[in-house]
Amino acid sequence: MTPSTAITGIVHLTERTPQISGADMVASLVPPPQFAQASFESYRADAAFPSQQEAKATLMTFAGLGAAQERGGLFRRAKKTPDPKPGVYLDGGFGVGKTHLLAAIYHAMPVRRKYFGSFIEYTALVGALGYKNTVDLFRGSDLLCIDEFELDDPGDTMVMTRLLGELVASGTRLAATSNTPPNALGEGRFAAQDFLREIHAMAASFETIRIDGTDYRHRALDGHADVLTEAEYAEKIADAATSGAVSDDAFADLVAHLATVHPSRYIRLIEGLSLVGMRDVAPLNDQSAALRFVAFIDRVYDAQLPIRATGASLDLVFPEEMLAGGYRKKYLRAISRLIASTLD
């Protein structure tokens, strides 16, 4: 049973073709709603992984909140460095709080011109405005936060490398989180030498900070996404539609539609929604489609939208051969977010 399209409040994402101007892109360069209030105080470091507290202390110093009281290992050496590096690069597995800490830096730094966006958003801005105009826009800015820095697209990586090099020269400070193919760069960790090769012009600008830990979402999850019957799905979609806009799409149609929308516009695709519905979920068999779906789920999760679905469990949409490949880290992060988003 499919929820009636006549019900007020139900929309189809496959009918949306969002447009976004360069000015809109710039205006959206702030932390997503989930991290609108993120702070160092609200970051709960796991005592089982000392690197989390160490990273927090180091980043507080970077943000200008005073020197850390206790440091060890890497951080003692960093204290002796007379000239701090202009950028910090947060490396770690998914769900250890990298984006929370990145947003905390953004909120804590008392500067006028600061920006926060994903790697995809910045590269899309270059595409929309042109390289020179983007440099002129950001030149002289105080802080640039880059979430999910991508190393799997050499072209985009080198464009960002060049851009960041010019901005550092103008006095901009940088903070970034890593999102690297683990089979290429090491399972669950960031490999500094690969970073040096990929963005060699910028390597000297970053202090790489390792954050260990387990995915915090797993602490309250049973390991599987909720799957609804068609009747349950129709009821939940209809109920949710009485208090706000909700989407209802066949999974295959939605995945196909994502190929027609640039990932930088996915946030506009879900604008105004209170819930995302997907019918007849099935495993994906195309890697490009899978990566687009990952980018879509990132935006859904950032917006803290619940997901309701029928068919296969959403934590099983990425086949084993994909999970064994170079994008394993991305798929596992998406699975974690899918599970969290389907639970009431």
UniProtKB/TrEMBL annotation:
Domain of life: Bacteria
Pfam family name, one: AFG1_ATPase
Keywords per UniProt: ATP-binding, Cell cycle, Cell division, Nucleotide-binding
Stored InterPro entries: ATPase_AFG1-like, P-loop_NTPase
Gene Ontology annotations of biological process type: cell division
Protein name: Cell division protein ZapE
Lineage per the UniProt record: Bacteria, Bacillati, Actinomycetota, Actinomycetes, Micrococcales
Gene (UniProt): zapE
